TrEMBL record:
Residues 80-93 have a biased composition (Low complexity). Keywords: Membrane, Transmembrane, Transmembrane helix. The keyword Membrane applies. Residues 61-95 are annotated as: Disordered. The keyword Transmembrane applies. PANTHER family: PEROXISOME BIOGENESIS PROTEIN 22. It comes from Zizania palustris. This is Uncharacterized protein. GO terms for biological process: peroxisome organization. It comes from the Eukaryota. The chain crosses the membrane at residues 38-58. Pfam families: HAD_Pex22 (PF22978).
């Protein structure tokens, strides 16, 4: 019996009862063979009944309950460990808490993976197609920013030009600034067109996530199709759509 085996007191009791019953049974059997009388047979029968009831009583008696083993104490739970940062998570670096250019780019683009950007007024010092016919000058503060954007996402530059000379000036200025030295931005990703309608078509065909432009008309036309836009202008755009940002310069928005 598993319950009794686990209890030393119960085991000892059973052993004593068994020895007593054996002695008693031996005496009665000897008496039976010596005196084959009705009284002896009745005594044996009564003893057998007593043995059966005693055995049933011992079987049905509850064993002493086991004491539950104390569970090992666990150290108090400390603060939960923070989840692993997502690939696009932005964390301050350095004691000053400033963000790197890449971290700012990631934060501002908010997961956008394809960016289209106008050149005049945003990347170049020049602001009109007529100025681009003469020369093109990349704003010094734009070089590092464009390189980081081209590493993080698929970047396309575009502009409305009046002639082939304007295209040559634009490409030469971008190359001289070192923007084609990495695989992020290539000459094939610099697009030219002859009208603002063409520039709008470029953005839609490329299915851009984020577009940067100085033309309010283009920004307004694309607001229904582009996830986010940046309107580069020192003059506020008035009632802009909710997905359109406004900044006096490209650099200031990413600063």
């Amino acid at each position: 019996m598993p319950g009794l085996a686990a209890d030393p007191d119960a085991v000892s009791l059973v052993r004593r009862v068994s020895r007593a019953l054996n002695r008693r049974l031996s005496d009665l059997v000897t008496l039976l063979f010596r005196h084959k009388s009705a009284g002896s047979l009745g005594a044996v029968a009564g003893f057998a009944i007593a043995v059966v009831f005693a055995w049933k009583f011992l079987r049905s008696s509850p064993s002493r309950p086991r004491r539950p083993r104390p569970e090992p104490k666990r150290p108090p739970a400390g603060p939960a460990a923070p989840d692993s940062a997502a690939p696009d998570a932005v964390e301050p670096v350095g004691d000053s808490g400033k963000l790197t250019t890449r971290q700012i780019v990631v934060k501002r683009l908010s997961g956008c993976r394809k960016v289209t950007c106008q050149l005049l007024g945003a990347v170049f010092e020049e602001k009109t197609p007529e100025e681009l016919q003469k020369q093109a000058t990349v704003r010094p503060s734009m070089v590092e920013l464009l390189l980081e954007i081209s590493k993080y996402c698929d970047l396309y530059l575009m502009e409305t030009v009046l002639d082939d000379k304007s295209e040559e000036n634009a490409l030469m200025a971008l190359e001289s600034a070192g923007l084609f030295n990495t695989r992020g931005l290539m000459k094939e990703k610099v697009l030219f067109c002859s009208s603002e309608v063409g520039r709008t078509s470029f953005v839609r065909q490329l299915e851009s996530d984020f577009h940067i432009d100085t033309s309010l008309d283009i920004i307004s036309q694309l607001s229904r199709f582009i996830r986010c836009q940046l309107f580069v202008s020192s003059v506020e755009g008035g009632q802009l759509a909710a997905n359109v940002f406004n900044s006096p310069s490209f650099e200031q928005f990413f600063s």
